Amino acid sequence: MGRLKKILIPSLGLVLAFWFYSARDTFKPEMLRGKRVIVTGASTGIGEQMAYHLARMGSHVLLTARTEARLQNVVRRCLELGAASARFVSGTMEDTAFAQHVVREAQAVLGGLDMLILNHVGASYFGFFDGDVEHVRKLLEINFLSYVAMTTSALPMLKESEGSIVVVSSMAGKVGFPFTVPYSATKFALDGFFSSLRQEFAIQSINVSITLCILGFIDTERAVRAAAEVLAERPAPRDECALEILKGAALRRRELYYRYSSTRLPLLLRDCAAELLDYLVRSRYRLPATPGAPRPQH
Ligand SMILES: NC(=O)c1ccc[n+]([C@@H]2O[C@H](COP(=O)([O-])OP(=O)(O)OC[C@H]3O[C@@H](n4cnc5c(N)ncnc54)[C@H](OP(=O)(O)O)[C@@H]3O)[C@@H](O)[C@H]2O)c1
Ligand SMILES: *[C@@H]1O[C@H](CO)[C@@H](O)[C@H](O)[C@H]1NC(C)=O
């Protein structure tokens, strides 16, 4: 008992001290002023909103996605909002050579990189797993391999700037989700790759932060179109989501949960009551007798 006290009380003190300390480092928009940032999947949705927030904070943004016309509009708006500079490179992340090309562009036009925000996702379907292995392969290339390729190419610049990597994932990348089997698989892959890489950075004293973002249901057009009818849940606003991601990134957090109540709290069950968590996930869906034909989704 005496020994327990000797260990317990100091560790409790440490936990409290740590909590106090970490609660004190707060986000300031100046943290991102003048920073050189790549945002992928920036033509719509959360990526577009991150670009606007970065622009307001005075960052240099390099945006990418496939649709050039949309990127032109986003770049124009970023300049209106006060971006230090705003540019885009259009192309598809199915091709790892393109992913590397975007990073080289940052080197060429910005002379370095402070933050790499990996956010894009390829189109998938919403419905029971249909057995299409080629689709899984293609989605892994877009949602996972291009993230690996960009990180690899950007690492020399990020080491130099003591920069940050931000990986946008999902609840579906922490716990099994029905009707998005291929998507969920690609998000789990990101957790494995980036959590392992973070360990190696720690061992090698590489001061590049990795922030894995675990998002719940967000009100982007694509997500709402795909899931609003079946998900018995109100989506959270994408502009607030985008800002929370940037705050977590600037504070070099290990993981970021948004919204906290629908992501972090349920995940506490994962290690002690996995079946209850599975049940809670299933209970979020309003299911017809037989879920309809697969519809396009993320
Ligand atoms: N919305 C949600 O409920 C939700 C929930 C959890 C996690 N997330 C995550 O949040 C991130 C953003 O999601 P979102 O809802 O904002 O998605 P979104 O609105 O569909 O945006 C996806 C972006 O990726 C780009 N993209 C798609 N296919 C591409 C390809 N082959 N090559 C290059 N770029 C491509 C799209 O632009 P183009 O079509 O012009 O290429 C677009 O800019 C994703 O990582 C997603 O998994 C979202
Ligand atoms: C890591 O980099 C950040 C940002 O430059 C800096 O604030 C922090 O002190 C660095 N940490 C170490 C251990 O060098």
Automatic annotation (TrEMBL):
Gene3D superfamilies registered for this protein in UniProt: NAD(P)-binding Rossmann-like Domain
Membrane topology type: Single-pass type II membrane protein
Catalytic activity: 7-oxocholesterol + NADPH + H(+) = 7beta-hydroxycholesterol + NADP(+); 3beta-hydroxy-5alpha-androstane-7,17-dione + NADPH + H(+) = 3beta,7beta-dihydroxy-5alpha-androstan-17-one + NADP(+); a 7beta-hydroxysteroid + NADP(+) = a 7-oxosteroid + NADPH + H(+); taurochenodeoxycholate + NADP(+) = 7-oxotaurolithocholate + NADPH + H(+)
InterPro entries: 11-beta-HSD, NAD(P)-bd_dom_sf, Sc_DH/Rdtase_CS, SDR_fam
Source domain of life: Eukaryota
One family name in Pfam for this protein: adh_short
Record keywords: Endoplasmic reticulum, Membrane, Oxidoreductase, Transmembrane, Transmembrane helix
Cellular component, GO annotation: endoplasmic reticulum membrane
UniProt subcellular location: Endoplasmic reticulum membrane
GO biological process, one term: steroid catabolic process
EC id: 1.1.1.146, 1.1.1.201
An example Gene Ontology molecular-function term: 7-beta-hydroxysteroid dehydrogenase (NADP+) activity
Family classification: Belongs to the short-chain dehydrogenases/reductases (SDR) family.
Assembly notes: Homodimer.
Protein name: 11-beta-hydroxysteroid dehydrogenase 1
Protein's organism: Taeniopygia guttata (Zebra finch)
Gene: LOC100222111
